[in-house]
Write a structure and sequence with these properties.
single chain; mainly alpha; 9 helices; flat
C-alpha cells in the first residue's frame, strides 16, 4: 500500500466491523468470544481439500509455516544462514509451538500477532511503518480478540521515537479524525 488513505480505509473498516460486533453482542446477539473471521482458514482449506479432520488441522499448520517463514526472513537479515536455520529449527520443534500448530485453536493468531509486532518494533527501531502494524493488528483482532493488545507496544514505541507528537495539537486532531 503506497498511500496513507489506503491504510486509513483498512483501519477504519476494521474498527467499524469491531464496533458492529460489540453492538451486536450488547444487543443480545451471539455471545461467542471468538470472532467469526477466525474460521476463515478452516473454510479456505476445506473448500480446496474437502472436509476431513486432517484438513482442518492442516489449515492452522499452514498458518504456522507462513509464520516460521516470516521469522526465517527476519533472522536471515541479522544472522548467518546456518544460524538462522538452526534457530528456526529450534523454534519450530518447541512442544508449545507444535501444540499451537497441531491443534485447531485460534490462539496461534494471537501468538503470531504479538511476535510479528515485537519483531518489527525491535528490528526496525525508528523506521517502523506504524500504519501497517496497526492494520495488521486490526486484521488479527478479527481472527482472535486478545490480539488488539498488541496495539499498546505500537503506541508506546511511536511516542517514544516521536515525543514531539505528544505536544502537537494538529497531530491529535488528525488522530481523532482518522481513528475515531
Amino acid at each position: 500500500f503506497k498511500s496513507k488513505k489506503t491504510y486509513i480505509f483498512f483501519i477504519l473498516t476494521t474498527l467499524i466491523l469491531i464496533c458492529f460486533r460489540v453492538f451486536y453482542f450488547y444487543a443480545g446477539g451471539n455471545s461467542n468470544p471468538h470472532p467469526s473471521f477466525s474460521l476463515f482458514p478452516i473454510f479456505f482449506s476445506t473448500s480446496i481439500f474437502g472436509l476431513d479432520h486432517y484438513v482442518i488441522k492442516f489449515s492452522y499448520f499452514l498458518v504456522y509455516l507462513f509464520f516460521l517463514f516470516y521469522l526465517f526472513n527476519n533472522f536471515i537479515k541479522n544472522l548467518k544462514f546456518i544460524d538462522a536455520c538452526l534457530l528456526i529449527f529450534i523454534i519450530s520443534t518447541l512442544p508449545l509451538s507444535l501444540g499451537f500448530a497441531g491443534i485447531v485453536d485460534p490462539a496461534i493468531f494471537s501468538v503470531i500477532c504479538f511476535t510479528v509486532v515485537l519483531l518489527e518494533l525491535v528490528t526496525k527501531k525508528d523506521q517502523v511503518n506504524y500504519a501497517k502494524l496497526i492494520c495488521f493488528v486490526s486484521i488479527m483482532t478479527l481472527m482472535r480478540f486478545p490480539s488488539f493488545l498488541a496495539i499498546i507496544p505500537i503506541i508506546l514505541t511511536f511516542f517514544f521515537y516521536h515525543p514531539k507528537k505528544l505536544n502537537n495539537l494538529l497531530f491529535w486532531k488528525d488522530f481523532f479524525q482518522y481513528f475515531l
